[in-house]
Amino acid sequence: MQPRLNFFQASPEIMKAVRALNEAVDKCGLEKSLLHLIKLRASQINGCSYCVDMHSREARGDGDTEQRVHLVAAWRESPLYSERERAAFAWTEKLTRLSETAEITDEDYEEARKHFSEEELVKLSVAIGMINVWNRLCVSFRSIHPVQQESRAAAE
After folding, report:
1. Is the pLDDT of residue 151 over 60?
2. In this structure, is the dihedral angle defined by the CA atoms of residues 144, 54, 71 and 48, taken in order, positive or negative?
3. pLDDT of residue 150
4. In 3-state terms, what secondary structure has residue 85?
5. What domains, with CATH codes, occur in the chain?
6. What does the alpha-carbon distance between residue 66 and residue 59 come to, in Å, rounded to a whole number?
7. What totals of helices (H) and strands (E) does the chain contain, helices first?
8. H or E stretch including 24?
């Protein structure tokens, strides 16, 4: 698959703003491990190989286990995640699939609120929105993830 364009070069000013928001999310105070996992889950849903690769590597690099990283796609069936992580996964799926679900119910909200303060829930929602922005950029413009770059370099 060939990349379509480099969005950083095509629109540097808007990408500067995207990077600034991304940095704010990364420093928002939510657990780094939780942010990696929700970014991974949203990226799986959106089929973004670039982001799945990146967030899997980052999660492992920051100390998460191979098993937990691999089982994110099947988090409901795995006992490896805390109740807080499960609530974050559920919220991530609801927000990422908003066009399919058409609403966030009161029950969805109340379940998330059991595990996140109002402030944390806003931060979590922005983090989910942020990874969805990256997924849309990388998928639509066919960003090449490191594994593809390595195999291309080896072929040359």
Report:
1. no
2. negative
3. 53
4. helix
5. 11-155 (1.20.1290.10)
6. 9
7. 10, 0
8. helix 12-26
Cα 43 from Cα 128, distance rounded (Å): 10
| Rg of the chain, C-alpha, whole Å | 16
Nearest C-alpha neighbor of 61 from the set 89, 36, 41: 36
Give whole-number Cα distances, 129 to 33, 81, 102, 104, 111, in Å. 17, 22, 16, 15, 19
What is the C-alpha separation between 39 and 56, in angstroms, rounded?
A: 9
Length of the chain: 156
pLDDT in tens, 50-103: 999 999 999 999 999 999 999 999 999 999 999 999 999 999 999 999 989 778
Percentage, residues of the chain above pLDDT 90: 83
Residue 37: name the closest of 96, 92, 76, 79 by CA.
92
Amino acid at residue number 146: P
Instruction: Tell me the pLDDT of the chain averaged across its residues.
Output: 92
